[in-house]
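Ticket opened by: R.M.
Priority: normal
Category: complex prediction / small molecule

The reporter submitted a protein together with FE2/S2 (inorganic) cluster and asked that the result be attached to this ticket for the collaborator who will pick it up next week. Submitted input follows.
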Amino acid sequence: MPKITFVQPDGTESALDVDAGTTVMMAALAASVEGILAECGGNAMCATCHVVVVDPTRPGLPPVSDDEDEMLDCTASPRKEGSRLSCQLPVTEELDGLVVRLPEEQM
Ligand code: FES
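Result attached by the on-call engineer:
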């Protein structure tokens, strides 16, 4: 079961064991991780599920689609290297050990 760690802006970490087949966003919501709003329900239309992947070159991350790229220009906190929409990150075994930081703001 892949482990995904969410790091809050104050450094607090939540390490979750997540079923493959969900998304990073859905895993965060299911565990009530603060800082993921996901207002559009995972359709890459709100940018309130913004996370920053600590190692954006790691294997297992899908490429950023055009739609995701466009929405990442609309995030409340500044886009950074590693910024992703967590709803567009399917959880696979390959993502075991993924660490994402939550931004200061989502809206
Ligand atoms: S949940 Fe809306 S963009 Fe991810």
